[in-house]
């Protein structure tokens, strides 16, 4: 029993064991809320809170006689929201956006089921991107299984989850901190932001503005604006995150993607997307099943739905046309929608939408969304 | 089972705990069973094949001890060579023959495809090149009387199977490992310092493999995939250099982890790298790179051929033959043969110059710079054939390297290359001047814990998906 005689032999195995145990703390929701990572994790966390917000708001929506519209989709649908409805003078609409970054039909189904348990929306606007059906992208495992859905859902639909995605998901639980996709770079950035906070008074002095003369409201507003510019450690705290606050205010929509990428850059970025995951497109059949389940669920609850294909830049569109699997997906999605008598809209058709402001290779600029919404609300 | 996976971590912790928990006379069995399991995770049938090869060598040499007939030894060596030849050089041999005799069915890839269709594709047993070298050196050492201690079969079996060094070395000699295995029950518990050192080596190995090597494997992709017209000379030079950095980070990582694990079990495994990037001649490079391999070919090929104690021209021929075989050992492809021949020719050329009074390490600064520049020039142009398997492509790239086009556009991910270069430089520095770290020894614990935490964070942030070690293919 050398281990008892020379206890230091146990130190390194013990160290690894302790690290492994400590790591499990990051599986606790409360702890996870204090280590929120930018991007997917924050969005999916906010969607969970938004379900409760919608539940609370529901009596007011019903009282005001507004049409409740739920937006589902991936990041290409994030720009559909209440403010866009206000811009086009459609104030009778109550739009709640439950899109998620890289979300796929499995997530749409999960969210729709949750909503339909307590509400009966007038319509669901479901944005479908072909990218959601690409198994090679690995997005079912993360972010969807990792952040988006709960364990019960995973258990109930285990047979529809490909094994590779399930194993990746299991790994995110086995190595919880790594599963959070904890970024050291972000940590350094936020630490820097905390240690070297900009002195707003000093900045204002450059513009000959006296900070002391500002009202409390103005001071607060400046503080919030600065907090967007410079991240700090508070951003890890879900409840202090300005992004959460903003998403709650916009009912889940995101209007930050404003602007237009030039043609050369669009071409280059599209090429990158192609190399990243479109070169080897492997169809995720199970997502078609989830889409069918989603439409069936909506249909059974007597809500309406519009299925739309978000507009993408012409180079990506061209690329989509060359991939037979994507053509098959489009056809199959249309067939499924028809099966439940739900209309489909392809925003890539110039006769449907002719807005060509692309924020980047993947997304439309938010400036196109009023036109998008106009088209969607016209559909009966 | 890869060294840098959770499976290996769990496996090693279990082996380590069992090894130091059970009474000392169990240690041998624990090591043997764990080594069999380690190899078995890759292929169970090939365990039996490996055991058979070890048995032939062991019992053959036991027979030789009794009858002292040369042919017994020769039969054993022929079997070893045939073993590696069938698994590793079968396709190359028939391709060469098919090309000479103009039989397309024998040429590649036709032969491989045909055998695959018939379900007869030949798989390369993992680590065959390494264990063949080791078992041949065992038989040779007994035959020459260099090593005459008697061992049991299971000791020799564990000598080959010993899991930390089984797949990619360091290639251990009988005299290095067998005495340690024989006395494994008397092996002393590693001191705290040895454990610290072992842990450093394992962490450094993980860092080199997952942070540097695997990230660089994507960076060097244009060397193999891009259209040659899209690559300028500077990019090709940089990418070949980056490939060498990747190979160093990958292979030395494996050796570091092997040595580190050995330390945890109380074993001494020899070092394999000694600051190869600080070389000042190709001869010097081979005194720093893959040391156990270069010493092996020196002792078992070059010296038996006559080494340097032969007429000058014969000595050059010996060098060329040695590295021709060294190239062939690396892989069954014409490029490895060409690479080996080129290295042999360059070493012969250097030897020619050194014999005529040209200093290997010039005293004056300018002379040293010129020497280093020239050495790297030959190093990288020859290494191109090691990294680029397509012969025509390698020739085109070489042409571009030699006829420099003066287009100064850096390759994509140049910043990654730069940071990796800093990392490689740092590790070479500590290999060259290990005594410079002595002053930090008293803070060893704190430093180790800091590096451990940083490594965990870096793995989360920067590690590329784990890939096989480069040398597994050999």
How does this model look, in words?
The complex is a heterodimer of chains A (380) and B (474). With 380 residues, chain A is of the alpha/beta class. Helix content of chain A is 53%, strand content 7%. Chain A contains 19 helices and five strands. Chain A has helices spanning 2-5, 11-23, 29-32, 40-63, 82-87, 105-116, 140-148, 151-156, 163-174, 176-179, 184-195, 200-206, 216-229, 242-249, 263-278, 285-300, 314-322, 324-339, 369-378; strands at residues 67-72, 93-97, 123-127, 304-309, 344-346. A five-stranded parallel beta sheet of chain A has the order 2-1-3-4-5. In chain A, strand 1, helix 5 and strand 2 (93-97) form a beta-alpha-beta unit. In chain A, helix 4 packs parallel to helix 14 (242-249) and helix 7 (140-148) crosses helix 9 (163-174). The radius of gyration of chain A is 23 Å and the shape is globular. The N and C termini of chain A lie far apart (79 Å). Chain B is an all-alpha fold and 474 residues long. Chain B folds into two domains: 6-186, no CATH class; 192-280 and 361-461, no CATH class. In chain B, 68% of the residues lie in helices and 0% in strands. Chain B has 19 helices and no strands. Chain B has helices at 6-21, 27-40, 45-67, 70-101, 110-117, 128-144, 153-161, 174-182, 192-219, 221-225, 233-264, 282-285, 291-302, 312-330, 334-355, 365-387, 391-402, 414-432, 444-462. In chain B, helix 3 (45-67) packs across helix 4 (70-101) and helix 9 runs antiparallel to helix 18 (414-432). The radius of gyration of chain B is 23 Å and the shape is globular. Chain B starts with 5 loop residues before the first helix and ends in a 12-residue tail after the last helix. The relative contact order of chain B is 0.11. The model of chain B has no long low-confidence stretch (mean pLDDT 88). Classes of the chains: A alpha/beta (380), B mainly alpha (474). Chain A binds chain B through residues 1-3, 5-6, 8-9, 11-13, 15-16, 19, 174, 177-178, 181-185, 187, and chain B through 6, 9, 13, 16-17, 20-21, 189-190, 192, 195, 199, 264, 452, 456-461.
């Amino acid at each position: 029993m050398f281990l008892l005689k020379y206890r230091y032999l146990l130190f390194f195995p013990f160290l690894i064991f302790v690290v492994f145990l400590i790591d499990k703390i990051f599986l606790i929701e409360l702890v996870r809320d204090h280590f929120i990572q930018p991007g997917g994790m924050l969005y999916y966390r906010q969607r969970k809170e938004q379900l409760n917000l919608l539940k609370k708001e529901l009596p007011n929506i019903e009282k005001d006689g507004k049409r409740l519209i739920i937006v589902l989709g991936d990041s290409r649908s994030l720009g559909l929201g209440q403010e866009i409805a206000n811009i086009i003078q459609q104030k009778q609409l109550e739009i709640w956006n439950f899109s998620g970054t890289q979300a796929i039909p499995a997530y749409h189904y999960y969210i729709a089921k949750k909503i339909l348990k307590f509400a009966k929306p007038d319509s669901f606007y479901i944005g479908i991107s072909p990218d959601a059906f690409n198994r090679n992208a690995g997005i079912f495992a993360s972010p969807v299984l990792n952040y988006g859905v709960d364990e019960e859902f995973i258990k109930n639909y285990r047979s529809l989850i490909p094994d590779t995605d399930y194993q990746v998901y299991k790994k995110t639980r086995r190595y919880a901190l790594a599963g959070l996709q904890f970024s050291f770079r972000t940590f350094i950035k936020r630490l820097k932001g905390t240690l070297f906070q900009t002195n707003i008074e000093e900045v204002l002095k450059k513009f000959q503005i006296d900070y002391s003369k500002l009202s409390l409201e103005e001071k607060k507003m400046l503080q919030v604006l600065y907090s967007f510019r410079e991240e700090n450690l508070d951003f890890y705290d879900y409840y202090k995150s300005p992004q959460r606050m903003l998403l709650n205010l916009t009912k889940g929509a995101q209007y930050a993607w404003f602007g237009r990428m030039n043609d050369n850059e669009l071409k280059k970025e599209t090429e990158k997307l192609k190399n990243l995951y479109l070169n080897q497109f492997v169809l995720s059949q199970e997502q078609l099943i989830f889409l069918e389940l989603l439409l069936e669920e909506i249909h059974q609850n007597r809500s309406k739905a519009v299925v739309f294909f978000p507009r993408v830049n012409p180079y990506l569109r061209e690329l989509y046309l060359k991939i037979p699997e994507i053509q098959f997906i489009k056809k199959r999605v249309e067939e499924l929608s028809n099966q439940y008598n739900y209309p489909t809209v392809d925003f890539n058709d110039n006769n449907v939408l002719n807005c060509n402001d692309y924020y980047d290779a993947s997304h439309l600029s938010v400036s196109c969304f009023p036109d998008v919404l106009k088209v969607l609300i016209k559909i009966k | 089972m890869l060294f840098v996976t959770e499976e290996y971590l769990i496996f090693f912790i279990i082996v380590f705990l069992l090894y130091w928990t059970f009474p000392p006379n169990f240690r041998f069995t624990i090591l043997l069973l764990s080594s069999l399991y380690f190899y078995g995770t890759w292929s169970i049938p090939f365990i039996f094949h490996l055991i058979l090869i070890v048995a032939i060598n062991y019992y053959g040499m036991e027979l030789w001890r009794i009858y002292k007939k040369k042919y017994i030894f020769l039969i054993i060596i022929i079997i070893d060579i045939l073993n590696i030849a069938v698994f590793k050089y079968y396709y190359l041999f028939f391709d060469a023959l098919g090309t000479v005799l103009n039989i397309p069915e024998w040429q590649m890839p036709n032969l491989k495809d045909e055998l695959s269709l018939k379900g007869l594709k030949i798989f390369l047993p993992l680590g065959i090149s390494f264990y063949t070298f080791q078992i041949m050196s065992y038989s040779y050492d007994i035959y020459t009387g260099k090593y005459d201690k008697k061992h049991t079969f299971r000791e020799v079996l564990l000598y080959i199977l010993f899991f930390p060094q089984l797949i990619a070395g360091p290639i251990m000699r009988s005299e290095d490992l067998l005495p340690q295995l024989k006395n494994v029950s008397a092996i002393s518990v590693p001191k705290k310092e040895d454990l610290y050192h072992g842990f450093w080596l394992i962490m450094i190995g993980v860092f080199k493999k997952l942070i540097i090597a695997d990230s660089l494997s994507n960076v060097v992709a244009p060397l193999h995939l891009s259209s040659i017209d899209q690559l300028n000379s500077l990019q090709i030079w940089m990418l070949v250099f980056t490939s060498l950095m990747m190979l160093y980070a990958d292979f030395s990582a494996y050796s570091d982890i092997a040595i580190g694990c050995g330390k945890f079990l109380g074993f001494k495994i020899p070092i394999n790298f000694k600051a190869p990037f600080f070389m000042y001649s190709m001869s010097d490079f081979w005194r720093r790179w893959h040391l156990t391999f270069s010493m092996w070919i020196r002792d078992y090929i070059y010296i038996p051929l006559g080494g340097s104690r032969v007429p000058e021209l014969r000595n050059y021929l010996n060098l060329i033959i040695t590295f021709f075989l060294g190239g062939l050992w690396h892989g069954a492809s014409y490029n490895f043969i060409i690479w080996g021949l080129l290295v042999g020719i360059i070493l012969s050329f250097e030897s020619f110059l050194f014999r005529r009074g040209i200093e290997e390490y010039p005293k004056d600064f300018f002379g040293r710079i010129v020497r280093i520049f020239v050495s790297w020039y030959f190093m990288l142009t020859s290494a191109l054939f090691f990294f680029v398997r397509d012969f025509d492509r390698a020739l085109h790239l070489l042409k571009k390297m030699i006829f420099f086009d003066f287009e100064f556009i850096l390759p994509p991910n140049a910043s990654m290359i730069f940071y990796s270069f800093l990392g490689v430089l740092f590790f070479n520095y500590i290999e060259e001047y290990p005594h410079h770290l002595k002053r930090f020894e008293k803070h060893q614990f704190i430093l180790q814990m800091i590096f451990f935490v940083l490594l965990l964070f870096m793995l989360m942030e920067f590690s590329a998906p784990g890939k096989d070690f480069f040398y597994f293919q050999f």
